[in-house]
Amino acid sequence: IISQLIDDPDVKIKLKIQSLIYPALQTLDMDLPSYRDNALLPPLTKSLTVRFWSEYFTTDRSLEKAMLFNQHTPVESAQLFKFVNWSSLLPEIFKKGHLYKSPTHGTSELFKKYPGFLDVRAAPLLADDNKLHSLPVTYVITCQYDVLRDDGIMYVTRLQKAGVRVTHQHFEDGFHGAITYHGFKIGDRIKNHYLSWLNENL
């Protein structure tokens, strides 16, 4: 959406920053190391994440099932995998000995019915480098115990390669939703880091 706003000649406001707090950024590969490591970890399990994603596009459970087994992307869209190839986009510390497996291609049927799951408006990680290059100063929070961890980290890598000024704050003891846990040390720490960054960059 931010890329669209930047490219829209009718939008006169110049965006100064974008902030992403443990963001969900792609539906192409649901078998990242963070999905494997935290598949059963509440509050956001892998199956729940897949369900949320699929219901964003349709109530057809066949899409959810295909996404759960990483068999939802048609061969015609294979060129997009380079944008989410964690074997080249994740620092070694986050690979943890995991082996990269190319997702199994699905049929074109689901994509024809529900093309939204490969739309960059829903999945910003699928944007090409030219689009990323135009983005404003960016702040990204990721948490170790979160299925979405690697989405954020791969986005940071791609933004840096595209020349965007980005601050990445990773919390080794963090989990999805931690910022909303008032009174918890980790929640307070995430909020304080974020507010400090906002004060410096707004």
Automatic annotation (TrEMBL):
Alpha/beta hydrolase fold-3 domain: residues covered: 118-178
InterPro entries documented for this protein: AB_hydrolase_3 (IPR013094), AB_hydrolase_fold (IPR029058), GDXG_lipolytic_enzyme (IPR050300)
Domain of life per record: Eukaryota
Hydrolase as UniProt keyword: yes
Key words of the record: Hydrolase
GO MF terms held by the record: hydrolase activity
Name of the protein in question: Arylacetamide deacetylase-like
The encoding gene: LOC114490751
